[in-house]
From TrEMBL:
<feature type="region of interest" description="Disordered">
    <location>
        <begin position="1"/>
        <end position="34"/>
    </location>
</feature>
<protein>
    <submittedName>
        <fullName>DUF2188 domain-containing protein</fullName>
    </submittedName>
</protein>
<dbReference type="Pfam" id="PF09954">
    <property type="entry name" value="DUF2188"/>
</dbReference>
<feature type="compositionally biased region" description="Basic and acidic residues">
    <location>
        <begin position="19"/>
        <end position="32"/>
    </location>
</feature>
<dbReference type="InterPro" id="IPR018691">
    <property type="entry name" value="DUF2188"/>
</dbReference>
Length: 74
């Protein structure tokens, strides 16, 4: 399911990996590190953006694995 950004968000005592627009998390992990590893692999594969949220809900890290127009000449 390419084209939908991936988020790592806190959930209970762990961390969810989910895609934008999906009502259910793709996976749940005990640590944020595990969730980021899984989410990074998926974002790389699908060439989408990864957004990692902190416990406060604020985005604390963003990585884009898709087409990056800022890297083009011009």
């Amino acid at each position: 399911m390419a084209g939908r950004n991936i988020h790592v968000t806190p959930h209970g005592s762990g961390w969810n990996v989910s895609r934008e627009g999906e009502p259910v998390a793709s996976s749940h992990h005990e640590t944020q590190e595990e969730a980021i590893e899984v989410a990074t692999d998926a974002a790389r594969r699908d060439r989408v953006e990864l957004l990692v949220h902190g416990r406060d809900g604020q985005i604390r890290m963003r990585n884009s694995f898709g087409h990056d127009p800022a890297a083009s000449k011009g």
